[in-house]
Amino acid sequence: MNKYEKNTLSGILVSRAMRRQINCVSTQTSISNAINILIKFKVSGLLAVDSHGRSIGVLSKTDVMGAYYAGLPKESSVEDVMSCPPLLCSTDAPLEKALQQMCDSGVYRLYVVDASMCNGAGVPEDGAIAVGALAYPDIVGILYKHCFECEHSHFRQQKDVADDSVNRQLVADVMTAGVEGVCVDDSLSHVMEQLSMYRFGAILVRDLVDRPVGVISKTDLVLAYKHGVDPAERAEKVMSQPVKHCLEGDLLEEAIRKMIFSDVHRLFVKGKNEEIVGVFSLTDAARNRSGSCNACISSRIKMEV
User: Fold this and answer.
1) What is the largest CA-CA distance in the chain?
2) What is the pLDDT of residues 49-91, one digit of tens each?
3) What is the CATH number of domain 170-287?
4) CATH numeric code, 2-135
5) pLDDT at residue 298, as a whole number
6) What is the pTM of this model?
7) Do 2-135 and 170-287 show the same overall fold?
């Protein structure tokens, strides 16, 4: 079975990493108004609540993309497309346990309820009201803070004498290898099919001679839906440019810093010949469960026979 050894996340509770602000909507809110909130607050999901504030479901950008693909009117209600029920965890839950719950469930976020609203096993009771949210960027923020303050930090040692004895992790050690893509001439409907098939948050767009020229994210598609763009339109119409990237030989710590300060959720990874060989995302960084050098490598999950 899996056994968790001491690591960067050990001893940290969800209450330390979660964000206190929750973006909520009524189940009767229109998809169009929900999109406005998603874009305004730069969040990937909204908690749908009843008249008493109790958690009913979640409207994610994936759900909105599904509505766009299905041709639902933007005036449809959140209730028509939201996912139920929301996944919850306790403020007192170990952060590592919450991360594993996210990985096992294939979700990007958990909603957090106060420990007083949980039973003896730490399971939230029916009707519990959420007091926070926990997503992959929140976990990466904790990891980055740990790395930045560590005596082995690459950034700290730039000011002093570099310690070459530390075996630092590279982007290549953690990234998701291989890259799926679409062509500039492909329809937005095809793009959505690819994103759903591979469970991606974004996909690379290549030109007619196979050069990477842009990226289409679920955010781009949500905006296209909002502005009434026909799903039959070409991918080129809504793609974002340029393709933000890092190198497979970059230090993990530097790549995480680049994502945090550029406010992006992923970087496409270039290999030695400048070709794109993979993707490094905040999800990859969080699932790594440790800092960016071998000072924290004892954090790996070990298999116990």
Assistant:
1) 61
2) 998 888 999 999 999 999 999 999 999 999 999 999 999 999 9
3) 3.10.580.10
4) 3.10.580.10
5) 44
6) 0.87
7) yes
